[in-house]
TrEMBL record:
Protein's name according to its UniProt entry: Uncharacterized protein
Record carries keyword Transmembrane helix: yes
Keywords from the named record: Membrane, Transmembrane, Transmembrane helix
Ranges annotated as spanning the membrane: 20-41, 47-66
Superkingdom as given in the UniProt entry: Bacteria
Amino acid sequence: MAPRASGSAGHRAFRRSPPWGVLGIVFVAMALKADALLASPGLLLEIAVPLLLLYAINLLLSTLMARA
């Protein structure tokens, strides 16, 4: 099996795809948990804090790697 070229159509399509799929998954997941979140608002903090930390670390690492 020959390796695919870096400029293949699949690679270009992935690069141009917007993050709507990921945002849709997050929206659906939150909608499915809506009853539990309304019953216990503290649960939202338990979900949001690690998620925000993950994105902050991701932003920091990607910024540092881009500058190197």
